[in-house]
Structures are given as C-alpha cells and as structure tokens.
Amino acid sequence: MPRVARPRTKYHTTTSSTAFSQRPTVGEGISSPNFFSSLTPSSKPTTTDIVSAPVSLAPPNEPNSVTNPTEPRTKKEKRVQRHQRWVEKMNAAQFAQRQQQKARDRQSDRSALIRGMSSMQSSLKEVQAGVVAEVLSLGKETKKAEAGNVVSRKARNKAAIREEKRFGQVLRHPDFRANPLATIRQHLANTLTPDSN
C-alpha cells in the first residue's frame, strides 16, 4: 500500500510585524541606524527606569537555594548529613527511654518502700495505743492525789498558812529584792520540767 501524504499543520500564525521579527532589507544592511532605533527607547533613562539587583526567586527553605550556602553540595556530604540527623534522632529517642525507665524505677522503689513500711505502721499503731493507755491511767492517779491533798477545811487552812510564810520569805530574799523577774524565771526553770511546758 502506498504512503499517504499528510498535509503539514502550521503551529504558528503568520509572523508579527515587530522590529525583532523583521529582517533588514538588502540595501539597509545591519549597520542601519533605523534598525536599532526601533529597539531602544526614544527618551533618556530616568531614575525610575533603573532595574534592581537580581533577586533569587527560590524559597528560602529550599535545600539548594542561594541563601543557604551551608547545605552539602556533594552526594557524600548529603549522606553524612543524613546519617548525622538519624544519629541525633536515635539519641533523642534513647534519652527519652532512659528518662521513662528512671521514672518507672523510682516509682517501683517507692512502692517497695511503702510495702516494707506496712509492718512498721502496724507496730507503730500498737505503740501509740500503749502510750495513750498509759497517759490515761497516769492522769486518773494524779487527779486522785491532787484532790486528796486538800479535802478538809483544816488541811486547806494549814496550806494557806504555809504559803503565807513562804511568800514572806521570798519577798525578804536579797536576790528577789535585787531583780524580781530574774529570780522568778530562775525558780521556774529549776522547778518545772521541760515536759510540763
């Protein structure tokens, strides 16, 4: 079967009439001043026509951008950097695991200590019960003894007479006359026990 000739499709429209697309005629040549005059502006440049310095259009977070010169350029440098990031990540994970393990160990130590103290708590309760019973029994005996001292009128009168004599002796004592407050303080320190405060 013979080949069929296809019609050629045109992808561009006709040429534009701008100065770029027009070729100079044979008579003009390239050195013609009219050819370049259409390409240059007719007015003189002003300060507003100045073009700014070149600006990088790459985003700053892009790895190989101009703003980040510390990025590795070779394949080996990239591999080393990737390995370093991986090691840092592993170290951080191990550190977190160690911290959790320490917390678990502290918690188990506390619970073991509390378990060991349960027997001590029961013995402490027994001791406290014994002390309370002792205090209550002593309190009853002392109340009876104090009440028995001054029961009759005759005994109270004798005690009052003794106190009057003692008070007179205290008032006549030279230490009391020199400094009464210091003497009273010394007497209380000698007679009172530290438990009765």
From TrEMBL:
Residues 37-48 have a biased composition (Low complexity). Residues 12-24 have a biased composition (Polar residues). Residues 1-11 have a biased composition (Basic residues). InterPro entries: Slx9-like (IPR028160). Keywords: Nucleus. Residues 1-83 are annotated as: Disordered. It is found in: Nucleus, Nucleolus. One of its GO terms (biological process) is maturation of SSU-rRNA from tricistronic rRNA transcript (SSU-rRNA, 5.8S rRNA, LSU-rRNA). The keyword Nucleus applies. Pfam families: SLX9. One of its GO terms (cellular component) is 90S preribosome. Belongs to the SLX9 family. This is Ribosome biogenesis protein SLX9. It comes from Coemansia guatemalensis.
